[in-house]
Amino acid sequence: MTAAEIIEQIRPLGLESYKKVMFKHGAVEPLFGVKIEELKKIQKKIKKDYQLALDLYDTGIYDAMYLAGLIADDEKMTKKDLRKWIKKAHCPGIQEYTVPWVAAEGLYGWEMALEWIESKEEGVAAAGWQTLSSLVSIKDNSELDLEALAKLLEQIPKKIHKQPNRVRYTMNGFVIAVGSYVSELSDLAIKTAEAVGEVYVNMGETECKVPSAPEYIEKAKKRGSLTKKRKSAKC
């Protein structure tokens, strides 16, 4: 199956009502408005396909780009591929989910994350922090550089309130992720969150709210899910 064939397959699945929802969350045209559950049906048939994922992503169509992330053969993705993807990512849905998921599950997630968080481009920096969050959620703690993660946490209170909107959101998410998935750094994450205080993010026309990091981590502790890793960053 080619990218062109898949585009023709998913085009009629688009819903105007879903497009409106996606627009509120920052999606941009071209966009069909295909629900994720429909894209996942196609994912199950294809499973992984490195070249097809690249071809779908290159279409620039939001739905196809999202599907590309689902079927990407993550470990075949090169640094060149990942840099190209983040450069072409045109909205939060792709910048903060698709690209970070693929990067984190591949060979260069840590390297790309550290590179991207230093970017002056809001979407790229947001992708970097979200990649770090994905990494700590799926990697065993023995595979993580705990010292480097601690240093990143310590920098956040000094930097977060000066950052662009989506970077503030993903930095806050990083604190939550470390506190929830890395037991050795849970207390430091809570202290970091308390030092940061309330994080203001303009969520546009959505009903979404910025989660309170201390509350979120404490709830994870109480329900016994602290440090329980996810099988995949993708959803």
Task: Give an overview in words.
The chain has 2 domains: 1-72, no CATH class; 93-235. The chain has 13 helices and no strands. The chain has helices spanning 3-10, 16-24, 36-46, 50-58, 62-71, 79-88, 92-105, 109-116, 122-138, 146-159, 165-181, 186-196, 213-222. The chain is globular and about 50 Å long. The two termini are 23 Å apart.
Topology at a glance:
Layout: H1 3-10, H2 16-24, H3 36-46, H4 50-58, H5 62-71, H6 79-88, H7 92-105, H8 109-116, H9 122-138, H10 146-159, H11 165-181, H12 186-196, H13 213-222
Helix pairs in contact: 1-4, 3-5, 4-5, 5-7, 7-8, 7-9, 8-9, 9-11, 10-12, 11-12, 11-13, 12-13
Rg result: 18 Å
Distance between the termini: 23 Å
Strand segment tally: 0
What's the overall average pLDDT, rounded? 96
Distinct helical segment count? 13
SSE run = HHHHHHHHHHHHH
Note the quaternary state here. single chain
How much β-strand is present in the residues? under 5%
Shape: globular
The secondary structure category is mainly alpha
Most strands sheet:
none
